[in-house]
């Protein structure tokens, strides 16, 4: 019969382990540094790569135009005043949809005498204009103090801005300042000089640029 031999283990010495604080711990680099490294490695397309990525427009698209950009707005009275009095656009057409409780306001840089007086003709004409701005008002939002819209420039970022070409950026911005228009970037702020960003009543960004000075960017 076998009996446990306890005595043989009585003099076994257990080695002492160093305290945890003395052990070097290998940690991965901070995520911020890893992200920065990836950004440094990232590269944009070359001119040749950009051209290669583009297809030749199909013949069936020859009459396509860029017709509209849509912004949701909180208060049409405030937005209509801004886009007409401040930016110089005109209201081309208003469309109401009572069953769905919303209205559309189409804005653009057109002459008053060119806007058709007949409602149906005006609608068709409006939808044939290039680069109009469609302001969408869901009825009642103007009375909701909690209502606001994401402008695309706060996280998560997406949509950026629309742009207006003006004869003189500095003169235009002087007037905007007098009218208390909020600025995101003034003409001489930041690395890109000679262009500005303002905000409309809902916080959407609008780039203010002048075509000729922009030529320096494309060199």
Automatic annotation (TrEMBL):
Positions bound to Zn(2+): 68, 134, 161, 207
Cofactor(s) the record lists: Zn(2+)
InterPro entries recorded: Glyas_Bleomycin-R_OHBP_Dase (IPR029068), Glyas_Fos-R_dOase_dom (IPR004360), Glyoxalase_1 (IPR004361), Glyoxalase_1_CS (IPR018146), VOC_core (IPR037523)
Comp. bias regions, Basic and acidic residues: 35-54
Binding note for cofactor: Binds 1 zinc ion per subunit. In the homodimer, two zinc ions are bound between subunits.
Keyword Metal-binding: yes
SUPFAM superfamilies tied to this protein: Glyoxalase/Bleomycin resistance protein/Dihydroxybiphenyl dioxygenase
Domain of life: Eukaryota
Catalytic residues of the enzyme: 207
Region (Disordered): 28-56
GO molecular function: lactoylglutathione lyase activity; metal ion binding
Residues in VOC domain copies: 65-211
Catalytic function, reaction form: (R)-S-lactoylglutathione = methylglyoxal + glutathione
Matches recorded under Pfam families: Glyoxalase
Associated pathway: Secondary metabolite metabolism; methylglyoxal degradation; (R)-lactate from methylglyoxal: step 1/2
First and last residue of the signal peptide: none
Annotated keywords: Lyase, Metal-binding, Zinc
Protein task: Catalyzes the conversion of hemimercaptal, formed from methylglyoxal and glutathione, to S-lactoylglutathione.
Family: Belongs to the glyoxalase I family.
Protein name as catalogued: Lactoylglutathione lyase
Species this chain originates from: Branchiostoma lanceolatum (Common lancelet)
């Amino acid at each position: 019969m076998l009996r446990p031999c306890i005595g043989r283990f009585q003099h076994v010495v257990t080695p002492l382990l160093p305290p945890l604080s003395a052990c070097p711990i290998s940690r991965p680099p901070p995520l911020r540094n890893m992200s920065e490294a990836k950004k440094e490695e990232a590269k944009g397309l070359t001119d040749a790569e950009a051209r290669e990525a583009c297809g030749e427009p199909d013949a069936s698209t020859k009459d396509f135009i860029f017709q509209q950009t849509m912004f949701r707005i909180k208060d049409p009275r405030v937005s209509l005043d801004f886009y007409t009095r401040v930016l110089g656009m005109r209201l081309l057409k208003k469309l109401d949809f009572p069953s769905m409780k919303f209205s559309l306001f189409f804005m653009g840089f057109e002459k008053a005498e060119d806007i058709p007086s007949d409602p149906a003709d005006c609608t068709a004409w409006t939808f044939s204009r290039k680069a109009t701005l469609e302001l969408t008002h869901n009825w009642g939002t103007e009375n909701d103090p909690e209502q606001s819209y994401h402008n695309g420039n706060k996280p998560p970022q997406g949509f950026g801005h629309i742009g207006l070409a003006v004869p003189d950026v500095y003169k235009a911005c002087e007037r905007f300042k007098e009218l208390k228009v909020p600025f995101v970037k003034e003409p001489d702020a930041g690395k890109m000089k000679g262009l500005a960003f303002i905000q409309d009543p809902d916080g959407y960004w609008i780039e203010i640029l002048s075509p000729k000075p922009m030529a320096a960017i494309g060199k």
